[in-house]
Amino acid sequence: MGEVIRPLGSLVMQKVESHWFLKKLESNGFKRCPYITASKKNANKSFTYDTLLRDGMIYPDPIVYSKLYFSEKVREKPGDGKEIPNELVAVYCLGENIHGYSGLVHGGAISTIFDDMLLKCCLPLVHGDIPIAVTRRLNITYNKPVPVESHIVIKTYVVKTTHRRYIIKGTLELLSDQDKENPPVYAEALGDFIEPGKKASGHLKLHKLHSKL
């Protein structure tokens, strides 16, 4: 059984940057992409970025790879019957201050991470000049407790798209130093995301545009 890499500062993060798992993603057609695509001004007001992404919790920013870079539009007409696959994988460095019970990552933090990554996985499929989708339903299954001070791997993929709705699945594993055929899955997620109607979408787009000023 391979030893799980634990975060001990920037030196360990450099080790993750050259980890076999990331090299394998690149060889399988995944491309590195930034975690934050909105303006820093807007990101610094967000719950995920401003509250969780800090030293001792989630630090530094997650390393994200995607089959379809989520800041680029995949332009397909709604209801054209074409299924566009996308997969998004992220590596998170979790600190000691993100616990619920002592030594174990808080379940609410895990659900927030899933919500964030599942949404980013579906964004390349969203129609419109400014891709916007919101969470309609999110189901989490916690299989095993996740230890603090560990690196986790979030794998997400598109299950189904129908007009304005996107069904996305995700899993949580621990980053290991060995390539295992069936690594333990610590948590699973199933998300149902929807493009808002024109009125709500217009309000969200206006807010997003103003946040870039």
Task: Describe this structure as you would to a colleague.
This protein is α+β, with helices and mostly antiparallel strands and 213 residues long. It has a single domain (10-211), classed as Hotdog Thioesterase (Thiol Ester Dehydrase, Chain A), CATH 3.10.129.10. Helix content is 26%, strand content 25%. The chain has helices at residues 10-17, 20-27, 40-43, 47-52, 107-122, 198-211, and strands at 31-33, 63-66, 87-93, 134-142, 151-162, 165-174, 187-194. A hairpin with a 2-residue loop joins β5 (151-162) and β6. The N and C termini lie far apart (50 Å). Mean pLDDT is 79; it is low at 1-8, 75-83 and 206-213. This is Thioesterase domain-containing protein. Pfam families: 4HBT.
List the helices and strands and how they pair.
Blueprint: H1 10-17, H2 20-27, E1 31-33, H3 40-43, H4 47-52, E2 63-66, E3 87-93, H5 107-122, E4 134-142, E5 151-162, E6 165-174, E7 187-194, H6 198-211
Number of domains: 1
* CATH class category name: Alpha Beta
Question: How would you write the strand order of the largest sheet?
Answer: 1-2-3-5-6-7-4
Number of helices: 6
N- and C-termini, Cα separation: 50 Å
Structural class: alpha+beta
Tell me the overall shape.
globular
Any idea what the CATH architecture is? Roll
According to CATH, the homologous superfamily is Hotdog Thioesterase
- The parts where pLDDT drops under 50 for at least 5 residues are 1-8, 75-83, 206-213
Query: What's the average pLDDT?
Result: 79
Helix content: 25-40%
